Amino acid sequence: MLPYQEQYVRNAEEIGGLWQFTASPGVSFEDWYEERLRNRARLAELKKENAALLNDFLYPALDALYEADDAVLKDLEAFADHLMDWKTNMDCGVYVAIHDALLAMERVRKNRDGVIRELYKLGMGLYYLNRILIGISGRDADAFQFYNEMLFTEASSYLRYFDELGDEETRGYVIRCLANITLCTKDPKKRIDISMRTLKILRDEETRKAAPGLPWDVFIRRTHQQMSTNRSALNRSTLTRDQIAAVLDSCYEVFRQEEGAANPSVRWLWPYYNMEFSCGYVGLEETVNRLERLISGTPFDQYDMSGFYGNVELAVEYGTFLKRYPSLAEDPRRIRFLDGAYRKMMRTLMTNPPDAYGDYFVHTLAKVYNDFYEIDGLLTYREVLEKLMPRYSGAQYVLSRTAGDMMKAVARSLLASDPAFFDDISRFADMADPARKEEEILCFAGDCGLYHNFGLCKMNVERLNSTRPVFEGESRRIRLHTVSGYDDLRARPSTAMFADAARGHHSAYSGGEEDPSGYVRMESPYRKMTDVCAAVSWLLEEGGPDVGTVGARERIRSMTPRERNRFSPPVLACLTDAALCRELDSILCGDGEQYYREIYRTLTDA
Q1: Closest CA to 317 of 344, 340, 295, 293
Q2: Does residue 214 sit in helix, strand or coil?
Q3: What angle is formed at CA 464 by the lines to CA 16 and CA 598, rounded to 5 degrees?
Q4: Cα 17 from chain centre
Q5: Is the separation of the CB atoms in 37 and 592 below 8 Å?
Q6: DSSP secondary structure of 238-265
Q7: Which of 78, 45, 76 minimizes the C-alpha distance to 62?
Q8: 259 pLDDT tier (thresholds 50, 70, 90)
Q9: Contacts 24+ apart (CB under 8 A), 520-525
Q10: Cα–Cα dist 313/294, whole Å
């Protein structure tokens, strides 16, 4: 690699050790807090340096790519590989930017082998980048997945020229791209058909002879693993007999590899058990008993893929079974087990050491946010978020707590001039005691601020925001955090009242701007609080709680006419109040010590 590339990698590695909030045993809050402030300042330096490295060296190199020699290309590829090792994924966005440029170059050069290679590498980079879209549906999210699918599809179309391809490595990329189409499509029938076709090709003797050095058995094993993920579709009447048989065969093949092991992996045992249940070979009660044994047999402090699967994913899966089958949810013994499984899951999540915080763990955490089932009397979704947000989204938590305090200040000012301002929220309109009513409204305002950007937590953008400025393609994905936050919060009773703030805080008051969240102001029972949230969110985005140089009044004055039209007129008028501006300035210019104290308590109580 070139010096600037080596420096960027070193910076990214250092950022990986600084951005995550951890607490060593015995360290006082004062020492811990001082370290956080030093880390925050250092992260700002590294981010600025990384931006300069990209602007001064990488972008000019990509612009001049068509005249580049092989040495330059090899340096770029090595740079990308260091940033995307499939375990830590230090900077997937730069990896994607490099291979996107290399693909364009290979197309211009009409280098077929190069095009195929870059289609695969860009496709894999986008697959990992698109993992932040877990649980998000709709036109925008589907468009990202479709483009990813088309990259793999284009590369796999070169099967017709398999014998003519220049080298064995390129032929391997074609096979891998064919199998990877299934990573990007939601239709189970299509996924099954693609995997069936892939297995047929992988077993074809003539195809194997054309590339004898490829790891054909590895390809087959991984394709069986991909096929086995379709087991949930086995009870659908739309599947053909051949499709059902193919899924069953793959589940068996995956399980068979673990059968002779002293400690079979729960990651492949459960798919087999689930397949047997889906096909009616084993009943519901025995399947749930099997699931309980897998969860119970995994130590809470097993911080590897199997440990996270057994302690976290299977606990969430157990909750899903109770949600799906009412008879289980009515059984006190099953409820008690779920309670224990949830608490064990949280113990694993809250004690996870920093060196185990890799890509798989990030994806596992996102599944908790996406699939957790809330049931009366047990751990609530809100309690889960109160623990996980400060633990794994520390900087975002500080920002959100700041937003909450700002929203309380604005709401207090609005109530002073109009005590009935929030009476469109029915539970406040019915309160006869003015003091209690104001207290409840301010508490709600603070919580709306805390959860308004919750969708960003599942997307895990914290490290990205610490590394460099966000790319346009990443920004378009991150923009969908309003959809993600809304869907997750509204699905659970303990957080449903905050969902509209998460959905509408980037929406225009007039509804005149395109908004992927689908927020319609007049359909929201919490629209006036969401109006407050939208204004506070804009104020924070203009600087942030640690800037301390631009006050609220200056930020409001800097609004363009178009920006002013985005906000509720009563809220915008309220923001011109001098006393309120002074209070907002005090919050904006604070160092957030009280929020850091909350994070410290969460970390040390784990």
Answers
A1: 295
A2: coil
A3: 70
A4: 20
A5: no
A6: TS-HHHHHHHHHHHHHHHHHHHTSSS--
A7: 76
A8: low
A9: 524/500, 525/424, 525/425, 525/426, 525/500
A10: 11
Q: Which residues touch 203 (CB under 8 Å, ≥6 apart)?
A: 220
123 three-state secondary structure: helix
Alpha-carbon 568 to chain mean position: 31
Q: How far is CA 303 from CA 253, 313, 391, in A?
A: 27, 13, 16
Backbone dihedral region of 483: left (phi > 0), alpha (psi from -120 to 50 degrees) or beta? alpha
pLDDT at 186: 87
What is the per-residue pLDDT across 188-245, written as a single tens digit (0 to 9) for each? 999 999 999 999 999 999 999 989 999 999 999 999 989 988 887 877 668 888 998 9
Closest CA to 294 of 312, 276, 321, 320: 312
Q: Is 396 helix (H, G, I), strand (E, B) or coil?
A: helix
Place of tokens 């001064």: 56
Two tokens, residue 26: 């015995």
The token duo for 438 is 């104001």
Span 269-279, pLDDT tens digits: 888 888 888 87
Render pLDDT for 363-412 as a digit per residue (tens, 0 to 9). Answer: 999 999 999 999 999 999 999 999 999 999 999 999 999 999 999 999 99
The pTM assigned to this predicted structure is 0.91
CB atoms under 10 Å from CB of 581, counted, come to 20
Spell out the residues 6+ positions from residue 192 whose beta carbon is closer than 8 angstroms to its own.
227, 230, 233, 239, 243, 246, 247
Q: pLDDT-based confidence at 502, cuts 50/70/90? A: very high
Place of tokens 């289609």: 119
**402 close to 446: Cβ distance less than 8 angstroms:** no
Task: Give the rounded percent of residues in the chain with a pLDDT score beyond 90.
Answer: 71
Q: Fill in the amino acid letter for 354.
A: P
